[in-house]
Amino acid sequence: MVKNYDAQPYCRKVSDEDLELINRQSLKKLTSDEIFAFSVILCDNEIDRDFEVFSDNALLSLEKLFVGKTGILNHSNRSEDQICRTYKTEILCDGNRKTEYGEAYKYLKAWCYTVKSAKNEDLIRDIESGIKKEVSVSCNFSEKVCSVCGESVCSHRAGKFYGDMLCYKQINGVTDAYEWSFVAVPAQRNAGVTKSVSDKEKAHSEIKTAKAKNEESFAFFYKREMKERAKKGFAMLFPELPSDTAERIIGLCNADVLSQLISGFERKKAKAFPVKSQLEGKETNNIKNEINGQFKF
Q: What single DSSP character describes residue 71?
């Protein structure tokens, strides 16, 4: 199955260790002067724009499977669009960063090479200047597990909230890696890749992406905004209530309950702090009984 991620390539000096690994992929023995090497982040364990995430097991499988795989342009199946080859991969962990669902952030990094030649001059220049930056991977997997119920087949929809739980699908059972590609629009925000969908699911995935992306992303950020409004309501109308208690109450509410809570706060605020006109003047005996008399100078 196939998806998108955004990763930045980093150019690197070719070491003796790199050269040995590169020459395992080539028929001719290459020298460091002939090689342009760089690295990319292929994928990570963060929730992507399609509300899917690679499991730790999936990343471990991809780490092995991507060694020796080609890098291409726009997932083209034409050999002339092959631009580089992967010679080393490694899973790295950022101990100072957590994923959206609270786990340590991990990502799969790949080291790749291409040959310095007249044909590749523009490609190398685009990589060095950051023009060729976002990438996507094509791989096959057997299972997507729901974050809400833990099942691979269920009625929960990715990107929707069920109570206070965001539904996302965890990718497991990676069986093959086909290629990675430079693309214009990635799906993952922190890496630089595209997972791949099977031909059967491709049409459905494209429809889902077009229809659901805006809707589901909006739902996610809308609920977050509602939580902030509810916190402000508690702080204004119940200042004696500890903030952490208010947050725990809000955390138990789904979107419908939050909406009702905010509406109640708005009504209570309107009664407690009635709006007064800036033109309001003092009443006099002559005008106090007139319609709108208090607004007359």
A: E
Give the tens place of pLDDT for each residue, 154-182: 999 999 999 888 999 999 999 999 999 88
In sequence order, the β-bridge partners of residue 125 are none
Give 248's pLDDT tier (boundaries 50, 70, 90).
Answer: confident
Report yes or no: 71 and 179 within 8 Å, Cβ to Cβ.
yes
Q: Within a domain: residue 236?
A: yes
Residue from 102, 92, 138, 132 nearest 114 by CA: 132
Q: Is residue 204 part of a domain?
A: no
Give the single-character DSSP code of 29. P
65 and 119 housed in the same domain: yes
Find all residues with CB under 8 Å of 217, minimum gap 6, and list them. Answer: 49, 159
Range of the domain at 93: 10-197
Question: By C-alpha distance, which of 53, 99, 52 is closest to 208?
Answer: 52
239: how many CB neighbours lie within 10 A of its CB? 8
Say if 62 falls within a structural domain.
Answer: yes
Q: Which residues of 99-148 form beta strands (DSSP E)?
A: 104-115, 135-146
Whether the Cβ atoms of residue 280 and residue 295 lie closer than 8 Å to each other? yes
